[in-house]
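User: Sequence for Pyridoxal-phosphate dependent enzyme below. Tokens please.
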Amino acid sequence: MHLQEVPSKSEIIAAHQRIRNFVHFTPVLTSQKLNKLFGVKMFFKAENLQKGGSFKIRGATNAILLNKESLKNGVATHSSGNHAQALALAAKNQGLTAHIVMPENAPKVKVQAVEGYGAHITFCQPTLEARETTLKNIVNKTGAMFILPYNSYDIIAGQATMMKELVEEIDKLDAAFIPIGGGGLISGSILSAEYFSPNTTVIGAEPEQADDAYQSLKAGSFIPSKNPDTIADGLKTSLGDLTYPIIMKGVNDIITVSEQEIVDAMKLIFTYLKQVIEPSAAVPLAALIKEKANFQKKKVGLVLCGGNVDLEKLPF
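Assistant: Structure tokens for Pyridoxal-phosphate dependent enzyme:
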């Protein structure tokens, strides 16, 4: 039973109840050193410690549990990374078969994780057209249900549970910096802030070299990503037609950051939080550092969205 409309407050509460036995209630981390360095009270929601290594398990699990009666032939998707891992694990948890289409250049660490969860991987050329064509063939052949990575209200409701937890744990959060790829996480975060902590503003964080959301916000119309090229590989995707309107209506601002700023923020998180994160997870801190003058002594949440990084290919 797919959700047909923007998830309501009650649907996000239901999603949180539905998935709670299959996901971690991740910790919120702080660093006095980082707070002192930048003059901001920071609260890091450590989704890098989530099952499957990213927040994506929330949406994937919610989508599967909402539609379980229709999934006798399993689930399928195309993904180069975290959604692939999340769907493979969520399917395994429910005793379902997962078919994952991955580009030939997908990070080795993510391919190994998907294999480890027992999913069937089909490799394709690293283009969106190849991914979609290969997936369509697999769905036609197997009858598996396509679980979208982000452009689905089932997924958005699941991702919203991250922000629900954060604002319920940290009272009176002034703002939250959320990374933007396809927009599932920030869409859910906007909804949860609106429903559970209306005084918390949501600010998007995006690489300069994959800035479709920033461009769209400034133009007032949808501008898709063109040849994104960033170390934050989880944020290369363009917004979807379901995530786009939620973001444009609810985001307070979108801050873009350079590749060097992402690397610098990544080093700070490794050094002071002692957390292994992927580059995408450093983008919110990079954006906050850039805007720190506007957040002095404010309470700011940041999501460490994932920790699936190839340690042989660290960008520093």
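The longest helix spans residues 153-169.
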